[in-house]
Every structure is written in C-alpha cells, then in structure tokens.
Amino acid sequence: MPTPSPADAPAPEVTDIERALTRVASLTGRARQHERLMASAGVPLDRAAVTVLRQIADSEPLRPGELAGRLVVEASHVTRQVQQLQRAGYVTRVADRDDRRARRIELTPAGRSAVDRIQEVCRRGMRRSLADWSPEELRDLAALLHRLVDDFLAHVESAAAEARALAAPA
C-alpha cells in the first residue's frame, strides 16, 4: 500500500473531530447506558431495534428495503428487527397503497408511545448535558451536526454508486 503524501494527511481539526465522534459513539453505544435509557423509558428493546423504531417514527410507512437503505444496513438486519418490533406490538405491516402486493411498516399506537418515551428520556439527558450552552451555541451545533450527517450520507451513497458502477458488466 502506498504511503500517503503530506497533502493527503488529514488536518488536525479532522483528526480531532474523528476522535470526538468516536468518544460520542462510545458513550452512546454503551450497553449499560442503553439499558438505563430503556428502563427509564419503559421500553425493553435492544439498540438495533430502537434504531429501526426511531427511523420508522421519523418517516412515512416504509417498505423494508427502503428502511434498510435509510439505515445503510442489509435488508436481513431490518427484517429481524421488524419481526422483533412486530412481536412486541410496536409496528405493523400494512398494504402499500401503490402496490397491493408490497407491504410497508408503520408504527402502532404502542410504538408511537414507546418512541415518545424514548425521545423524552433522551432529550432530558441532552438538556442536562447542554445546560451551560447558549441558545446560539445549541443552534450552531444542531446545524453543524445535521450538515455532518447529510455529508456522511452523501458520501456513503456516492461510494455505493461507484461500487455498483464498477461491478456492472461492461
């Protein structure tokens, strides 16, 4: 593998951002933290199921493939999580209005209530963590985080399109 040139080396700020994101992911991904959050919300779900549940709550009813695409995971992963959520009574499968053969996944009233409780517990913790931040700092942080996520998603989609183009027969 070739050695990167100095021009390819990341700026110190990029390295700092990557380290900070790693710390955030580590803090939010801790099993005990998740268990405390779920206990406070009264929702007995694992992290993957909560991620799927929150994505469903943030959108129109989705086909499983659309849901997998939004989460940037394999469809089989979504299928397992949706089955878990369906058994728990948080989601249901409904006919697609445009194609009666297809199914979409939507929240049940119990699912909406679970998401609301999870979000409230998360917001409460976030409010405590950011209590000393000014409204302007909070607005700036929110805008920059949304921009970061949008740029990450654009990069992932671009890389996937490149991979598909390279794999396509000539």
Structural description of this entry:
The protein is mainly alpha-helical and 170 residues long. It contains seven helices and two strands; from the N terminus they run αααααββαα. It has a two-stranded antiparallel ribbon. Helix 2 packs across helix 6 (109-129), helix 3 crosses helix 5 and helix 4 crosses helix 5 (75-87). The two termini are 28 Å apart.
SSE arrangement:
Blueprint: H1 12-28, H2 31-41, H3 47-57, H4 64-71, H5 75-87, E1 91-95, E2 103-107, H6 109-129, H7 135-167
Antiparallel strand pairs: 1-2
How many discrete structural domains?
2
What is the CATH class name of the largest domain? Mainly Alpha
* Helix-strand topology string: HHHHHEEHH
Percent range for β-strand residues: 5-15%
Number of strands: 2
Regions with pLDDT < 50 over 5+ consecutive residues? none
CATH superfamily of the largest domain: Winged helix-like DNA-binding domain superfamily/Winged helix DNA-binding domain
What shape does the CA trace take? globular
Taking all residues together, what is the mean pLDDT? 88
**What is the CATH fold-level name of the largest domain?**
Arc Repressor Mutant, subunit A
- Total number of helical segments? 7
Short description:
With 170 residues, the protein is mainly α. The protein has seven helices and two strands, in the order αααααββαα.
List the defining traits of the structure above.
mainly alpha; Arc Repressor Mutant, subunit A; 2 domains; two-stranded antiparallel sheet; 7 helices; HTH_MarR-typ; WH-like_DNA-bd_sf; MarR family winged helix-turn-helix transcriptional regulator; MarR/SlyA-like
